[in-house]
Amino acid sequence: MAASSFGKNITVTTWGESHGPAIGVVLDGIPAGLSLSEDYIQKYLDRRKPGQSKFTTARTESDQVKILSGVFEGITTGTPISLMVENKDQHSKDYGNIARSFRPGHADFGFISKFGLRDYRGGGRSSGRETIGRVAAGAVCAKLLEELGVSVFAYTKSIGDIHVVDFDKDQRDKNSLYMPDGNAAKKAAEYLEACMLNQDSAGGVIECQISGLAPGIGDPVFDKLDACLAKALVSIGSVKGVEIGDGFAASKSTGSLNNDGFRADENGNIYKTSNHAGGIMGGISDGDMIVVRAAIKPTPSISKTQQSVNEDGENIDMEIHGRHDPVIVPRAVVVVESMCAITILDALMSHMTDRVDYIKEFYKK
Amino acid sequence: MAASSFGKNITVTTWGESHGPAIGVVLDGIPAGLSLSEDYIQKYLDRRKPGQSKFTTARTESDQVKILSGVFEGITTGTPISLMVENKDQHSKDYGNIARSFRPGHADFGFISKFGLRDYRGGGRSSGRETIGRVAAGAVCAKLLEELGVSVFAYTKSIGDIHVVDFDKDQRDKNSLYMPDGNAAKKAAEYLEACMLNQDSAGGVIECQISGLAPGIGDPVFDKLDACLAKALVSIGSVKGVEIGDGFAASKSTGSLNNDGFRADENGNIYKTSNHAGGIMGGISDGDMIVVRAAIKPTPSISKTQQSVNEDGENIDMEIHGRHDPVIVPRAVVVVESMCAITILDALMSHMTDRVDYIKEFYKK
Amino acid sequence: MAASSFGKNITVTTWGESHGPAIGVVLDGIPAGLSLSEDYIQKYLDRRKPGQSKFTTARTESDQVKILSGVFEGITTGTPISLMVENKDQHSKDYGNIARSFRPGHADFGFISKFGLRDYRGGGRSSGRETIGRVAAGAVCAKLLEELGVSVFAYTKSIGDIHVVDFDKDQRDKNSLYMPDGNAAKKAAEYLEACMLNQDSAGGVIECQISGLAPGIGDPVFDKLDACLAKALVSIGSVKGVEIGDGFAASKSTGSLNNDGFRADENGNIYKTSNHAGGIMGGISDGDMIVVRAAIKPTPSISKTQQSVNEDGENIDMEIHGRHDPVIVPRAVVVVESMCAITILDALMSHMTDRVDYIKEFYKK
Amino acid sequence: MAASSFGKNITVTTWGESHGPAIGVVLDGIPAGLSLSEDYIQKYLDRRKPGQSKFTTARTESDQVKILSGVFEGITTGTPISLMVENKDQHSKDYGNIARSFRPGHADFGFISKFGLRDYRGGGRSSGRETIGRVAAGAVCAKLLEELGVSVFAYTKSIGDIHVVDFDKDQRDKNSLYMPDGNAAKKAAEYLEACMLNQDSAGGVIECQISGLAPGIGDPVFDKLDACLAKALVSIGSVKGVEIGDGFAASKSTGSLNNDGFRADENGNIYKTSNHAGGIMGGISDGDMIVVRAAIKPTPSISKTQQSVNEDGENIDMEIHGRHDPVIVPRAVVVVESMCAITILDALMSHMTDRVDYIKEFYKK
Description:
4 copies of one chain form a homotetramer. By secondary structure, chain A is of the alpha+beta class. The first copy, chain A, is built from 9 helices and 18 strands.
């Protein structure tokens, strides 16, 4: 069944396999009148491309995006925006044992179980390259959000057991791990080098902070804003957990500690005295910063010997060599940011039809 | 915008407010030919109803379900199943300060921000009573899954800091906390009594285990099985986090430890040597037990004094008296089970159209 | 698969069988702040109820609607509106040959083919009573449209070969055939009496005119406004054709005759010099009156002997006695109006997110 | 709002403007295991390409399709199939008055009203070239249907007032008008030449016949098979009417004439004694040939002088010169066929989950 689309007012449909001719996305529902260039989108894609450091695969994917539709004279027209990146660096290598074996921690076995066959080259549809489409779409949504005063900022919160301690937003883009804490980044780099020496890999946690979002965005039942964000994040490969606000820690807290009190300032503006909720209550934004986190598992491709089975049902030993990130967290930061941007913009647009007054005011003009 | 439906092949639409005349659900897409009675559904509803112990509100809601459509002579007909529960125990009390104030930790402020007005009686649409519809729908889906050999089993894994240690499935229904560990249940009860004495409340973690699901169910991109489960769980009020398999712990592990190896037994059946993945790889079931967890925050309604603001923007002190659960985790167990059952059945049905061979075999008959 | 919902911003989900305990609809996405009473909805339902004349079945269905949710103190809250009508006049008659035979022109054979079983009482889910949910939902949408200055007016354009000649809007509600032409109504009544004498039935055409709709509503590709209206109308039982504007006549016209020219009046307002297009061009409203028509087949239930087959595959002769309308066109007028109202309001709401400027203006407030 | 997708199990999303770099479609939900080549799709595209006769524009669009994803080693993989055609023959001409005027009968005015701006080159998104994506997707669906024994056959039934009289299926592809009646084709050609001499254009009717479809496909309420077909057809530009079976003629018939009787043959197979219903009863296929028709308006682009208005609100006279089909009916035949194929396959797949027995049989394997 069709399952490659995300969103309601805005619908993002990604397509493409790692080693096919191209990979891309169709972004439908972006309103007319947004200035948009390939350069703008490219900046987002560059944040996820490999080869940024020794901790990302050395593949020299240029990943140049092309706008194929939906933009005329530099302005969106309201019609579907088709974005494409050609797959240039496709090694026509012998996939050997990978072609007919199930790599531990990968989607190979699932694909065969589901479809009966698979494009085994580079993970096929389950390759990290699928996220190119998400990031390209996310860049467009983030641009519109930015013009509305909503900012979406994701960062590496931890790698293995190394956590950001002194959060300094400006530091994020100053190290290749996208950690907003120079010290933590240094320690994390050391940890990763040890992992690599050990033919092993690492995971981590990405946090995303969304600021400037008005209260009243989201829905009270199935399409709670946090439920949509949770789906958005877990739909990213390797994500094994999600938290909103205090997350799992809230389960150990008490009501009196976990509840965020309300106060009004001298101008009558209502604010919360704390933000354990992470900016969402009852599925609806409360005007505070939205805080969500995604737990990323260690990269499954490792060169250490692992137990596996091939498609003939024979037990084999498997070592996965080649170009693999010892940790995907840094490159996934922009993917998290993108999925959040898409989700938030979609929800924001839904809010426009929430009240009869809104509709009357709009329509009477 | 419409946002009260969940699912694709099966669509669950809940409706109703806590203190309106009734609350219910329309369940569309359930195939024809399933034996179904009000009694069967009622058993699920009874697991979430209040008054089961001193840790749940004393309201004597009978919550009797009526089947209004979609079942003829005890068998589903393939048409929408409308299920309704009348709201009997509606106190026509004076809502006083609650009617025009924002309870901390509740959806009140979000509702006003979103809709400009709200049904303040008992939480209105954001009442826990909304889950009646989910549970009624979940019971139907669980029944069909059961007939397919798929079981969905949720339980209280922790309350506050008290965790299940010696897991014994049979113990779950022997204590009112739905903890499959008598000892832990006893300790948790003590903890809850302390909370109550302190005019406070507690949270906890619910785990759901899905057994008997074939590999190949789910999707590789946006509608990953775990992404859908994550949305399903976070769409339940008070859920602040979700984990699949090892969850956040995976972020601190390494690839060699976290990867599940494959082996084939003497009959050629492939199995995993561990289940860190929680039964889902690349968004698709792998045949192993699916394991998901939801973190539930402490009940926000507490009688301790809290800071709040009323609709006139005045700072107030607020104490919430009345009938409130000091912990909602036990009653939410069946809600988690229900949302998982709906999600799993929906995904299972999607799989039926995944291969040309499946379609040919079906159609040629 | 779930297939009982209609609409995107507004989602209408009907449920219920002719002879079950009740029939109803859940209407999700109606914005908060609309005054709504059971009386208002009842007026619409009364237009479709039987017993209005000798040409409609004599069943005394009172069809009293109840609002079960989504309205608080007479105002919509933005949450799902659940509307229900109890099925009071259910004869527990012996369905005899109908229970296990396929009535010509009815859905019986389709139901058995699709579901393998069916609720044979009174047509079950395919009963005309299913439209109660549509009309109740349509009434709500029509009310909001009315407040926006958009009117939706349907009428009987022809019965058999008797057409409205002198269109007089005010005449519509002055005859039980809902024909806005007293003369035509008289002739049509004579024609129907002849049909009845002959144990036969008649069909006709319903036209719907939508006035006051701004230009720019609709979509240019799959969700063209006329495509959505076409689906809305053909989804009504017995509709076998749909036309927009000149419809089939346009296929015989030429470009120079069929094109509507544009002119601007002295105030710069643009208008069309004719309306062959029926108010929709390229799928988008053009500000002119929208004109659509639905062709309704003759009532299939007739007392004349017909050839049929029973579920044992035996050839039988069949006479359908009982309470049946010799023509359903008059009662379907309000159903057409309702489906158009739902479709138009849904499209109008979609337009609110069409431009970056709209979003900025909305959000900056 | 996103509105460029069609279908549920199968989702077709088209993108692209007439004069952008390319035009294409993403086809999601096609099951794994279908042999598919660019050549197969190309044959369908060639049927809609211009330059096939003097009655189609002389533009030499080669319209070569490329498969960008979803096919591996000639077999579909179950993942989205991205198909693209580059726009080669884009004249960088001066659009002059067309750029800022509203062509009668076109979508120009609607686009400006909706989006506030438009890509005026060659109709932009409302160009007939948008149907390239539909036809490419339709070819894929038609292939799978063909393998199931379901054939979808559309043809020109009339042009202006010239109708097919002696239907001979084999004749359809022997004339450039795709009329399965050599004589009628000849007369229609004469009629078109007269239109052209007169600087005018013509319309017509396309019929589509679907054979080999089992009974039981479709849905009884909103997603009636005919309702979905109606939307599919009216979503094609220039379609102003749709009929199923006897269509509008049924509105003048009587029940005894219009009802199709049932009989069983000696093998117990049930058939209808006539097919006024056009193969669909109560929204569900009845095993008979499905017959639908679409009325196509005359090509709006004519060189005769017409009244129009420009974007400054000034009244102007307009003559549209250049390459335009005097009738689009012949090229739209394959578009109708494609939209029907998509709709039918989608509905067929929905049927797979209609019964508990089907699911059990599928899952137990």
